[in-house]
Fold this sequence. Notes:
Elements: E1 28-35, H1 56-74, E2 79-85, E3 99-102, H2 115-121, H3 124-131, H4 146-157, E4 167-174, H5 185-204, E5 207-213, H6 227-231, H7 236-241, H8 251-260, E6 265-272, E7 278-285, E8 312-313, E9 320-321, E10 326-331, E11 334-339, H9 340-347, E12 355-358, E13 372-376, H10 384-398, E14 400-408, E15 411-420, E16 423-425, E17 428-431, E18 434-439, H11 464-476, H12 490-504, H13 520-523, H14 526-540, H15 544-573, H16 578-583, H17 592-601, H18 610-621
Parallel strand pairs: 1-2, 1-4, 4-5
Antiparallel strand pairs: 2-3, 6-7, 7-13, 8-9, 10-11, 12-14, 13-18, 14-15, 15-18, 16-17
Amino acid sequence: MDLDPEGIFRDDSDEDDDNLHEREANKEMVVYLIDASPKMFTPANAAKADEKQETHFHTIVNCITQSLKTQIIGRSRDEVAICFFNTKEKKNLQELAGVYVYNVTEREQLDRPDARLIKEFSCVEDSFMNNIGSRYGITSGSRENTLYNALWVAQALLRKGSVKTVSKRILIFTNEDDPFGGITGAAKADMIRTTIQRAKDAKDLGLSIELLPLSRPDEDFNMSLFYAELIGLEGDEVLQYVPSAGEKLEDMTDQLRKRMMKKRKVKTLSFAITNDVCIEVNTYALIRPTAPGTITWLDSISNLPLKTERSFICNDTGALLQAPQERFQLYNDKAVKFSVRELSDVKRVSSLHLGFKPLDCLKDYHNLSPSTFIYPSDEQIFGSTRVFVALHSSMLRLGRFALAFYGTPTRPRLVALVAQEEVISSSGQDEPPGMHMIYLPYSDDVRYPEEVHLTSGDAPRATDEQIKKASNLLKRIDLKHFSVCRFANPGLQKHYGILEALALGEDEMPDIKDETLPDEEGMARPGVVKAIEEFKAAVFGENYDQEEAEAAAAKGGASKKRKAIADAASQKSAAYDWADLADNGKLKDMTVMDLKTYLTAHGLPVSGKKDAIISRILTHLGK
Length: 623
């Protein structure tokens, strides 16, 4: 019996006879291959009088610079290398012509990006022609193949690390869709064959090759001439791969960031179905709140991260002890000893058994935090996918969800496992098959607030006209295709912007745009303004604005009157030497009205009898 006839739980890279799933990579190594031929330095768009001309080379440098800045924040463990091909100078371990591996001092060629690399690479265009140079690498009458050399160098750079734990990728940036167009005959066929074979050899070693094509103003990038076969595209994939003709060059930065943001597994778990049946699943975080990075303590001299260590020292001898193997608890003036295992057994409050309940028992308010997506894996426990598919299909058919304990037996968390069916549309897979792990609340997390039951006469009711105007207003200000992912956290953007400016030694702090602020331009549209005014008139009445203006004017008149009284009191109070009067005891000879001028001039309370007023003045004078 085939439990997965459609193969929906198989990885795309699996062959029919391959029973093992590739290990999900938790680290990424990327080599940027940048075409440096003279065509990359031509204008990237049509000439306009009011627009500055930019080259494809300039666009790619900015694109990679922004990607490296994002990578330091989100994926600091990933490693990158930057490599130019079709250059005059050569700099690579293989001493191959036309290939220049760009790097900075005190950094390996394939390493984590740092502030110095980003800062110097962002300015590489200024000195590129003098230090590195540009040329056509593949020309007629020459057997030199710079694209072949670049793939060889990139493959050598990605030699370290296992493909089981590291995702290795090569990204090619070029606006030349036919790199062998300048040669003909057997030499061209031989170069194409050897270059494609070099790409296939790299793929056989677990390397992924991707292309970011750049269209020139006079013609679109034609993938079918060469690069479709190089990266392994067939049929409709060729047309879908090329960006649309109306796409702006500025979108390249977002496109690259999207390519770099890959879903990665959080951890691998053992899923105990029964006491005797245990399968392996991978967990994926679909959406999580982003917070600033944790504080790292550095040594004040070397500026290196500090490592925290804990040691046990004997009170009697001062000798260094190992971690205590026994704990004790004082009971009835006696020390009751416990071993670590006994304490673990005492704390064990759950058994890892699975239960099922109908889906209508799971309420919306039970989902207090973002869920985790789980997917089967045959990496360590063979047959996990078959068992998972059987459980998944049964839960969908019977309309049940599973109740399970997640975590350690000493600190369990009750979770609900809800099966999700695969959803496929004309554009591809919209939702994958698997299960969502929902973290259920504890009993004290669920609140039962008191309900106030009002009679129809007590509670105000909106009229049909008010409801109609409110509905019209909501339709006017509704955000089409709203998604929380379209708005950046302004606090985090400012935090990382300041860190970036400090790391790169920039003089000015970045100007962060707060996308959560109201759209004043959109709210000022005539249709929106009319809907707001109609809603205000329906709820507050036609004369609401006039009444509000009169109230504001009255409030302003009262404040002006108070200010005039305070100014008059200050002038009258300035005629007396209050410190001298207080020292000579003459305050009691003054009238209450004169004493109150001092209090009014200094903003003090004027209430109370004469003795209270004099005491208040003396306190204010510090007497």
